[in-house]
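Hey,

Quick one before I head out. I ran the complex with zinc ion overnight. Inputs first:
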Amino acid sequence: MSFPSIEIVCEKCGGRINRIINVKSLKDVLRPFSGRCNTCGVSLNPSDFELHMEKA
Ligand SMILES: [Zn+2]
């Protein structure tokens, strides 16, 4: 079985924020790190994300 994975990349610094396996709410994805990039610390809005969807 294969699941799509989504890579969330900070548009500001290009740092990888998170990688999730199942599609779920971006708010849920952001909650653990308070909606901030853990590389550059910028606040992130879901609409600002660049989402890379890849097929596993
Ligand atoms: Zn960043």
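The pocket of zinc ion is lined by residues 10, 12-13, 15, 37, 39-40, 42 (CB under 6 Å).

Talk tomorrow,
K.
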